[in-house]
Amino acid sequence: MTMSIIKKKRVAVFVSGRGSNLQALIEGVAKDGIPAEIALVISNKPEALALQRAERHGIPIAVFPPTGLPGPEAYTDALLERLYKAEIDLICLAGFTRILPSRLLAAFPQRVINIHPSLLPAFGGKGMYGMRVHRAVLASGAKYSGATVHIVTEEIDCGPIICQEVVPVADDDTPETLAQRVLEVEHRLYPRALKLMAEDALEINGLRTRIRQRAD
Ligand code: GRF
Q1: 3-state SS of the chain?
Q2: Mean pLDDT value across the chain
Q3: Lowest mean pLDDT: which of 63-72, 81-90, 124-133, 155-164?
Q4: Whose CA is nearest to atom 13 of ligand 1?
């Protein structure tokens, strides 16, 4: 019998707030057979609840307030140094409120993923975050929303889509009720996307991704 041993990917999760997706990733790694280890949690906000979640699980944390360093280049250098020191292979953005520097993206090509609370490419892009997304969905009259995990590229919310799930909009939805149902979907979608990335299971062709056909 042949057994392929996959080396666990070391993952950094970038957060800014509540951290419910971080929690879903931690739990997913623990029970869904994802060949990954959450090795670092990075926040731009020292008060982020997500940091407490990380500490509860014994995951190292690092806080990088954007104003703490002399300029954007020094900020990027500090981030990169910390990521290299922790030997990070993959980055998951989970409610991180800052745009990642180009130099960081270039250092992790097709190795940074993000979760967005709509069916991209609809309701994404600059300024489309948090409740604004759900308000815009309701204002548009769309009957379906959902969640998307995608590879991060320079253009905000425009990278190749790894997976998506649909959430029907209810007639009496408010932004809050819709957000809650989308969030529940996010929590099962993100671990699924991380599993695909950690297993190197994706073929990426332009904006299209598909699960690689294995020869074995
Ligand atoms: C989620 O809705 C995610 O899609 C978006 O930011 C929110 C983060 O929530 N990018 P949480 O901090 O993971 O609870």
Answers
A1: CCCCCCCCEEEEEEECCCCHHHHHHHHHHHHCCCCEEEEEEEECCCCCHHHHHHHHCCCCEEECCHHHCCCHHHHHHHHHHHHHHCCCCEEEECCCCCCCCHHHHHHCCCCEEEEECCCCCCCCCCCCCCHHHHHHHHHHCCCEEEEEEEECCCCCCCCCEEEEEEEECCCCCCHHHHHHHHHHHHHHHHHHHHHHHHCCCEEEECCEEEECCCCC
A2: 95
A3: 63-72
A4: 21
What confidence tens digit (pLDDT) does each residue in 166-177 have?
A: 999 999 999 999
Residues with catalytic roles: 116
| Residue 216 predicted with pLDDT over 70 | no
| 23 CB within 6 A, ligand 1 | no
Query: For residue 20, how far is its CA from the centre of ligand 1 (angstroms)?
Result: 7
Q: Where are the domains of the chain?
A: 9-211
Evaluate: CB of 18 within 6 angstroms of ligand 1: yes
**For position 214, what pLDDT does the model report?**
74
Does ligand 1 come within 6 angstroms of the Cβ of 159? no
Percentage of residues in the chain having pLDDT higher than 70? 96
Of 3.10.105.10, 3.20.20.80, 2.30.40.10, 3.40.50.170, the CATH number of 9-211 is 3.40.50.170
Gap from CA of 213 to ligand 1 centroid (Å): 32
State the average pLDDT over residues 133-155. Answer: 98
Question: What's the pTM value of the predicted model, to 2 decimals?
Answer: 0.95
